[in-house]
From TrEMBL:
Protein name (Swiss-Prot/TrEMBL): tRNA pseudouridine synthase B
Active site: D41 (nucleophile)
The Pseudouridine synthase II N-terminal domain, residue ranges: 26-173
Function: Responsible for synthesis of pseudouridine from uracil-55 in the psi GC loop of transfer RNAs.
Isomerase among keywords: yes
Keyword Glycoprotein among UniProt keywords: no
Single Gene Ontology MF annotation: RNA binding
Listed Pfam families: TruB-C_2 (PF09157), TruB_C_2 (PF16198), TruB_N (PF01509)
Top EC class for this record: isomerase
Lineage of producing organism: Bacteria, Bacillati, Chloroflexota, Candidatus Thermofontia, Candidatus Thermofonsia Clade 1
The species this protein was found in: Candidatus Thermofonsia Clade 1 bacterium
Amino acid sequence: MPEPFGFLPVDKPLGMTSHAVVEAVRRSARLKRVGHGGTLDPLATGLLVLCIGAATRLSEYVMATHKRYLAKVRLGATTETDDAEGQLLAEQPIAHLTEADVARALAAFNGEIAQIPPMYSAIKRSGQKLYELARRGEVIERTPRRVWLQTRLLAYKAPYAEIAVECSHGTYIRGLARDLGAALGVGGFLAGLRRLASGAFEQMVAWQSLQSALADGTWQRYLVDERAALPHFPEIQLDAAQSQALRHGRAVRTALSAAEGSLARLYAESGAFLAIAAYQDGLWRPVKVFGQS
């Protein structure tokens, strides 16, 4: 029986780690390969895109897309982890803050900005993850990252600000909460987070619905194919000779030209998904080859 292939957009419940969701689906569906397209912290809910079977090889392209979130920021306090899981470090009075104050400060977090990653993150330094160093009480200098943000204040009812966020890959919403609080001079941390969209994914399967479908063996009806997952990659249909060449790792020339380094989805003469290819020197060169049909 062929291994299932595709993407499973799941509404991750509060309290579960992304790894726990992956393992639950892997065990219940008896799958060998399950990954995901971007971690959600345990205290976050919302869209977690699972990659099933050979689609795990496409996870980097799902991760690289923009994300949309609904964030709840607690102003007037800071924590060790920049979220509600960490130890409370300090509190500041915020009675003077108005909604207009928060909106003005938030306006600075739009467009491309430099963001310092939190110490409690999975970024590695000398082979060790930053959160491992942080747990030992070490704080080291982190290199700021260029990220892109679009933010909008939805509501402010002290001490909480509700914020709509669209951002590039690699943006830490905990970092936004920390930096917004610092800009206001009162501190802040992320009190709640829901991911609403990731790239082309906006719909998601409720966790209970997925569990029921896993139990009765109908879970594959929720799978999304590579066309829907990566619509920003153009689609190229190959003939038999081109398909054969690509299967053997050779570049092919097609009627479609593109910017140097652009990626596309290539399909065999049978219509089966065959490869992801990059445009270089007038040819489409295979980056990841999948089907053999």
